[in-house]
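Supplementary notes (optional reading)

For those who missed the lab, this is the record we used. Protein: receptor protein-tyrosine kinase. Length: 1412 residues.
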Amino acid sequence: MNHNLKVAIELTASNKPIISPNQGQLVINEGEPLEITCTGSTPIKFIYPNDFGESVNTSTPKKIKENDKINDIYKYVFQRPNTVFGDTGWYGCADHNVEIITNSYEKEDPEVNWLYVYVKSNTNLFVEADTYAHLSAVAGGSIVIPCRPTSPDLIPILSDNNEEELKNASFDPRIGFTIRNLLVKDSNWYKCSIEKDGEEYAVNYVLSVHLKRTLPDPKIQDESLLHVTRGQDLYVNCTVEVEISMRYVFDWNTPQQKVSSRISTQQFRKQLDGNSVLVTCQLTILNVMDEDAGEYECIIRSIHDIKKITKNITIHDPQMKYIHLIPQHTDKYYQAESGNYVQWVVYVDGWPKPHLEWFKPNSEEIIESPKYFVNTSATATILKIMSLSVMDSGNYTLEAKNDYMIEKLNFTLNVIAKPVSILTRIDPYYPPNESTEFHCEVISNPSPNITWSFLRCPNYPSLENSTTIYPTDMTQSAAYSSSYRFESILKMPIEISGKITCKACNVLACDSVTDNILVSDGLGAFGIIGPKEPVTKGDDIELICAASVYNYTNEFTWTILVNETEELLMETERLHIVQHKTPFTYRSTLKLYRVQESDAQNYFCTGKIMNTMYYEGPDTLSDYANYKLIIHDPIPPYFTKTNMNETKIRTIDVMIEGHKTVILQCFTEGMPKPTVMWYKDNVLLKENDQYFFKYNYQELNIKYLKHHDSGKYSCRAISRLGTNETYQLITVKNAKWHKLDIILATSIAILGFFLVILAIFFTIKVRREKKMRKELMEAGLMHFEEGALECLNPDLTVDDQAELLPYDKKWEFPRERLKLGKQLGSGEFGVVMKAEAHGICESETVTTVAVKMVRRTTNPTYVRALASELKIMVHLGKHLNVVNLLGACTKNISKRELLVIVEYCRFGNLHNYLLRHRKDFINQIDPKTGKLDLNIGMDILMRTSSVSSNNRIKYAALSFSRSLSANSDTGDVVVHYCPGTNPDSPEINFSPDSCINSNSSQPGWRSNYCGDYKDQHLKPICTQDLLSWAFQVARGMEYLCQRNVLHGDLAARNILLAEDNIVKICDFGLAKTMYKDGNYKKKGDGPVPIKWMAIESIRDRVFSTQSDIWSFGIVLWEFFTLAETPYPGMEAEKQYQKLIEGYRMEQPDYAIREVYDIMLQCWKAKPTLRPSFTDLVESIGNLLEENVRLHYISLNTPYMDMNTMNLESGKNDYLTMMSAPDHTVLSSPSHDYVNSPFSKSADSSYLCMSPGCPTDESGIFSPRPHQEHSHFEFPSPASDSEDAVELSPMLKHSEEDPYLKPINVHERRAEFARQRQAMKDQIVDRPIDRDSGYCNAPRNLHLIDLNDTDVNDAQKDTTDLKKKDYAPSIICMQDNYVNMPKQKNDLRKGIPDSFSNPSYVMISNHEVDQKA
């Protein structure tokens, strides 16, 4: 057992088996037994000397015990009972998978354990017998002469044929002598000898050293192997070229398992030039069968080398016919440049063997030539096209056909080249000022852009004072039905000589061609201009010899032939020769007066050609022209054709014939050609809209006739030989108003009517625009863009003076690039539309956005409210959890059209989303511990996809350029932001119940934003989602608070859900604008969200950051009740009374205690005791997993970076210059504006805007608890005692806080009446006579103290106080809004509603005069 353990330990230490005895070598005597044991952890391979033929004799192992497995150890026992000298050698143990390399015996072999055994013999001193063994080696190599002794004590001597001992041979008794770096001369007879006891024992060897000869690779001629069919006789040749003296073995190895008489080989030798021979080994297979398929190997061996080649032969069915064409490259479209070449290689396989042909694009067969190289073999075909040109482009076809089928393969070649331009049809000379066509042919691919230019040369051929014009009257088309030949035709008048240039450009290069354009007013370069009409005896004629000024001099001679001899013409009384010059020709004019028959002959004009080459010689070149003058006998004018009848009056009845054109013909002849003139009642007719002439005045066309057109129409043919006349009398009957006259009169009447209509239209339009401008002025929108920065009051909050902020034009987005889609939500006065904005994001062509707008019929107040929200968003900056501004369309704000483009959140508001998916909610609160366990429902959450489509928010530059605004300090600004949207998300048509809110369920300024998505594959809502939403809302509100922006209506319905589970706050900065609006009050004070309002907001209408924190607590309650209505089943009056008594809503079922504690902190009665939004972010963040919290923080980092960049660029941060909407500031006694008590300081620059002032209609509310209607007035709490069961849980009453005390309504009424009377006693009449500028008020209006009212009005109001009921009921509405009590006094009728500055109100000058 101990031995086995030892063996196991040794085996663990080594990977190879253990051999025993383990001593490197073992010496025994002949006849003694030999036992070797091998042990290992795997089956064992044992190596030992065996008979190697005649040279070594070994004994037979008597007993071999192979691989006995004992205790997971393999054991191999080898025994030779009676050893002989030949058993001397290497014995080894190895793993059964190890390949043993011959003669690689090493003591430290990593895989084999070796043992060398000597078997000593007294009679045989060498292991191998003396057989004169032949050894072969290669020059430069080494050889082992294996004379191994049977005993390690015996040292043999190696000697050569000369009995000289070899000293350079190394000896190892286990291997023999090793001779290295052999030379050919080392070929010899060698002897190993041992001398013992005076007797010599020797073993002889014959060594042959050869130079190494490398065999060439054999080649199989495989043409016959391409398609081997069953039943055919197959002959396959394998050839190799070898030296004649080389000894080799050349044969085939075939895959057949059995020897077959069908298969045979035969060798052929062919003597080649020099010392080589071509050897062919032919394999013959008769009657090929399916089993003959497989791999055939042709192999050639020599002493030192072996080379082989294999070929796989497939046997085919002789009945199968096919053609396969396989291109070398799968892409068969090739594009090359001109001058290069293209080559296509196609592999061909077919049976029967197909015939191959290549065809050009014009279907012409390609024949090998210098242009085309075609090489076809049994397996492939190659087409190479050299020197490519554009005309080589097209589809080339390879056609393969046999007797059974045809296959085609197409290649497309597109040769691109720079254009080559040629001007065609250029005339030597052109007549001046005539329209001329020029043709330019271009060879190009791709298609070129052809342009023309003409260099006008006033001093041609000099380029002095030349100018270039670029004509545009041209047409371009493909010429000659080729897509690579193009022709451009230019039409232009030629005024003077110059150079015409045609320029063609494509993507590669341009090419231009220029030609000279010569202008001549003669007959080309040189010629005689004769009379236009035939010459009659007695006529005066001129023969003008004109020569181009560019090629000829001004020297002319006139000659005639007299007896076949040229004679110069000399001037006479009837013959004058005059020379002059035009801009284009030198002229010599031959004038003949009163020509006679003798003047009819040939006239020759000779001119001299200008020597442009400055050649000086005895003779100058000349040119001549000939004119043959023919003289006719005179013939007086006569008529050849006429329809005029001198004796018959032609009556034309307009009623019957209508206004047809009347044609009078008067065709004449005569010599000379007579001139035709027309008369009516002997008055010459001229061409006009009624009369026009044809055929050189030989036909008169009268288009219409009137009564006064009756008369005598005569035609006169006039020549120097006399006048011939004919006429026609025409009478016109029943001619009425001419159609043109009727049309003219009608047109004037219609035009006058339309002018009246246009005048009325423009009058109405101007009045409407004036009215609209007045309304916009009243709404505070006249100075929308520049704002009124000089009027900003740092003591007022943002929402009190948002309209004073400037609008930066960098946000302006072109309206035509905004495509409105479906409606997402709407209120009474506004709508939210889904839209596509083209180019609003740099990274996207089209971005899905949401567009807020007011209805065009809406009161300007609501346009102002949306404008205020826009301005707040412009200056707010960016945040992940706020609906960010993308752009706006404000150009038509004067028409009450204002579009605010914001981020699109396709899942809609959280209130609707929670209601819609409430049934799938996963409650992750452990019912046993009441703690949050995120593993609950994890399997369901993992199986469903996320609400997000995994589109992360993208950041890019808005691609539209925004121009510098009136108040921006920088130039064009690019806003580096764009929301992540999913424009490809599937759209659905919402059913009516898909959107919970109706138009009347929220105030008119609210978005009522509904979702636009499908429910498939949405991740269910879980408790962690509610926490992450709460965390994000807190972060968004924290940002708004830091930017001094008040929300005023924070609720789940005003929080939107976007991709990636991101929530965004919307409709911020809007509520208070509407609460304080005058129109809002006049309409009954409108609905307000009382169930979300803090105690001080309900009681005193104080809206602050702390009231937003209260609303945030209600939002938390909405989240964790899955959108239940707050204070369920409780009326508004009852709710308010219970709140001041300390009641707070119970803990929601889906909220853990920590979340409910946060709600209670938000609902502290005293605003200053409520946590800040920063505290809320930290508290809720601690309830989230660290990675979730950091995820939403990191998503907001780019927004913060952009905000930082904007501030660093020097942009003014106006929001931080204003007062924060903090409760402490708003309710401070020194705070004399907006939500503050009345200030008694007589010289304050701001006047009280509290409801106690009789003239207050500004909508600004005071927190004073004792002023009339400064809060809701509810019934006594005693009346609600029966509902005391709902008062639990109560806040602790240990706090001494006036906010917790119930309101004594009767005491407050009395107190308020006393204060109001006291205020009236302090009224001081102080009219302020100054121009208020913009500052939220129209110009040129007086500003007065709000308390400046008529005494009678005050008395009347005091009487009304006694009569009126001060506990109006609260009107409940849908979606938990209520109507606030209406104000009692409305003394501002007719005053612009936009004037909401708390310091001033406006009255007319008339009222001021009366008070004065």
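If you only remember one thing from this example: The mean pLDDT is 79.
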